[in-house]
Amino acid sequence: MEATFTDPMNETRKRDLGGTDLSPPELLKKIEQLEVELVQKEEKLLEMDLLDEQVSQLTDGIRSMAKSGKQDMLLLAQTMNELQRKLKEKTKQMMALVAELSMKQALAIKLQQEVRDKEQFLMTVSSRIDQGLPPPKEIEIEWLKVLRNEKMQKDAAEARAKRAAEEEQAAGPGCVHTTAEQRPTAYVPHDEYSLPLPRPYGARPPFKPSEPGPNMRHFRKPVEKPIEI
């Protein structure tokens, strides 16, 4: 193919294009027309640039408004959450107050009923006393309870006073306060060759055995078998 197209003697290596070239006046006219079209295109491009700039300004404003709106929405959501939390706390407090009020109302109704019962009982007792009759059995029982309580309080006060006096006496010089149980320090011989006089213990005095523990319930007392002869 290269040899065919580089051979100057080959007439078929070229192909003439059809058409005619424009004359110089026509070319000038064509150039002027293209310049006019170029100016129009540049004007349209400037208009598009101006429109693009305006649209960019509008979009920037809308974007900034959207950002500020997001911040406002965030603040609004935080405020709403805080208000909801406070509302829940107030609701719990109100429910607690309502429950407490219900309890107070029930207690007030109970106390009013007790007052009415006491008034009725007082009227009954007063009428019996006016008629010269003894008071009811319930009054006697209550009076005995009062006397018993007074006696118990008096005994307790005397016991406290006695204990305080003993503690004060034990706190004197030469006295040792102890809660240990007194141990024997001497024994009385029971043989027939000794007098029944107390004798002091030696180096090993008797010890007091401890109380049986709860594990003693697992041991049973042996049953004595009778002896057969």
UniProtKB/TrEMBL annotation:
Region described as Disordered? 1-24, 165-229
| Coiled-coil regions, chain positions | 31-100
| Keywords of the record | Coiled coil
Q: Which GO terms describe its cellular component?
A: cytoskeleton
Does Coiled coil show up as a keyword for this record? yes
Protein's UniProt name: CC146 protein
Identify the species of origin.
Pampusana beccarii (Western bronze ground-dove)
